[in-house]
């Protein structure tokens, strides 16, 4: 009787130990970026050494200021606003970058912390109008003393954002509001920076609203590409 009890206890302890080991392995796998993709096909984000302790600033376009572009149905009812789309994607991108090891600062459109901001990179996230067009576009301050560094950031967007989201570059609609973006004049001039129009709320709404994690991955992958190509303070 006592022997049977001991055998049952041994089996129970073995099962508990095995379950604990599997839980530890699963946690390590998640940290390393291994694991099953979600329903949207986006894999989990793992640690990226180049991102560790680097400061990334993300501006959630129009946050704390206005709604940005507003889309309506034929009856005039509001269906989606740019600000809410920007906020959702910015939050998801920040989450991925933090899991990669970066120190992420999420800012409002006219956040007072923009003044003199020194960071490894700043990216302002916006969505374009409700017209039936498709594509992304980006711009950096034309008079920047670190133009070559900013060009690397745009190159990383072309290299990663485009294939992840499936969107093509839409360069012919870059406006003065983008090249003359107000935050460019507020931050430290040696902070690499760009503004990204992530897609059109009209033609790309299925992506921007329906698959925000895909867009966030494109944003995060682009920034991680940039951090891997540049050292701290470069």
TrEMBL record:
Q: Pfam families given for it?
A: Amidase_3 (PF01520)
Entries under Gene3D superfamilies matching the protein: Zn-dependent exopeptidases
Annotated GO biological processes are: peptidoglycan catabolic process
A GO molecular function term, named singly, is:
N-acetylmuramoyl-L-alanine amidase activity
Which ranges carry the MurNAc-LAA domain? 56-206
What protein is this chain from?
MurNAc-LAA domain-containing protein
